[in-house]
Design a protein that fits this description.
The protein is α/β, with parallel strands linked by helices. It is built from 7 helices and 8 strands, in the order βαβααβαβαββαββα. Helix content is 39%, strand content 20%. The radius of gyration is 16 Å and the shape is globular. Bound molecules: flavin mononucleotide. Flavin mononucleotide binds next to loops.
Length: 198
């Protein structure tokens, strides 16, 4: 990885049987590859052991010594090494899936002073309720959420053969990726210059 390339982790937030999430994540990863500013890693939460029951101490207090399951190692090291994140999320009951909340709650420092963009999909609202909740949660973890994002309403009729029918979608994706790269660079420099006072 050269110094102008940022390690981007694309998180597939849904783990449901028959889910659409991997289709969206795969298109997002493709757009990030085309952008050229990122070294892209897709992390699928369905492949990670994410228990709902947390250890007694919080990850904020336990730091590096937080006792995570062995099956979570791939997720933790991906989050740890990331310069930027894209969370791909559906909308479940006007919020985001429990799988995503559990994955977030098992971590703390891994999110600190790093940018997060969102790509959502769902019914009429395109997952926007899910994103609003995620913005709130990730701010608590000292992450920096990006204003622009991609929302795909009615994905069941608006996507075909693994891509959105909207011909402008790749352009929108580029705008988000440009903003994410800008923040990834700014925040990586800042983290290197001084520890974040969390
Ligand atoms: C439990 C559940 C609740 C849902 N609630 C909403 C909702 O509030 N708004 C919405 O637009 N779609 C909702 N949907 C529809 C999902 O957006 C749609 O099923 C989508 O495919 C879920 O993403 P996934 O296939 O990656 O799991 C819900 C689906 C499930 C399974």
């Amino acid at each position: 990885m050269d110094n102008d390339t940022y390690k981007l982790v694309v998180i597939v937030g849904s783990v449901r049987e028959g889910r659409f999430g991997p289709v969206v994540a795969s298109w997002v990863a493709e757009q990030a590859g085309i952008h050229g500013g990122f070294d892209v890693d897709v992390v699928d939460l369905a492949e990670i052991d994410i228990p709902l029951s947390l250890p007694a101490a919080s990850p904020k207090i336990a730091g590096d010594g937080y006792p995570r399951p062995v099956g979570m190692e791939a997720l933790t090291s991906a989050l740890e090494g990331a310069d930027a994140f894209i969370i791909v999320t559906p909308e479940y009951n006007h919020s985001y899936p429990a799988s995503l909340k559990a994955a977030i709650d098992w971590h703390f420092t891994q999110w600190t002073a790093k940018p997060v963009a969102f790509v959502s999909y769902g019914g009429a609202a395109g997952g926007r309720h899910a994103v609003l909740h995620l913005e709130n949660v990730l701010t608590e973890l000292h992450a920096v959420t990006i204003r622009d994002g991609l929302a795909f309403p009615k994905y069941f009729t608006e996507w075909q053969d693994g891509r959105p029918l909207d011909s402008e979608a790749p352009g929108y994706a580029k705008t988000v990726l440009d903003q994410l790269a800008w923040w990834a660079g700014a925040l990586r420099s800042a983290r290197e210059a001084a520890p974040y006072p969390a």
